[in-house]
Design the sequence.
């Protein structure tokens, strides 16, 4: 599946009320569990957190489709890419 094709499956991750580094780590762990082409929407209540998630995702090689600025909430929309590696980070975060 190409990155610009519509995903048959969309996931949602709510990290509102949490602080660094939890939102970035939880986003990375969630992306590692997804298949290429799937879309993840990450909800946060902090602009800096949204920016940090966007930067981390771009460094991983996934596609940031957009960052929506809603009233008191930001949504980072990510599409999983065909990245060729997984981090050596062996961490499981509670949901």
Sequence:
């Amino acid at each position: 599946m190409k990155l610009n094709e519509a995903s048959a499956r969309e996931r949602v991750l709510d990290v509102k009320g949490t602080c660094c580094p939890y939102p970035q780590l939880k986003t990375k762990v969630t992306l590692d569990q997804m298949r290429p082409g799937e879309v993840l929407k990450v909800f946060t209540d902090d602009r800096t957190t949204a920016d940090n998630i966007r930067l981390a995702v771009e460094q991983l090689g996934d596609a940031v489709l957009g960052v929506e600025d809603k009233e008191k909430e930001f949504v980072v929309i990510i599409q999983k890419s065909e990245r060729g590696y997984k981090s050596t980070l062996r961490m499981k975060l509670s949901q």
Q: What stands out?
A: The first helix runs from residue 22 to 32.
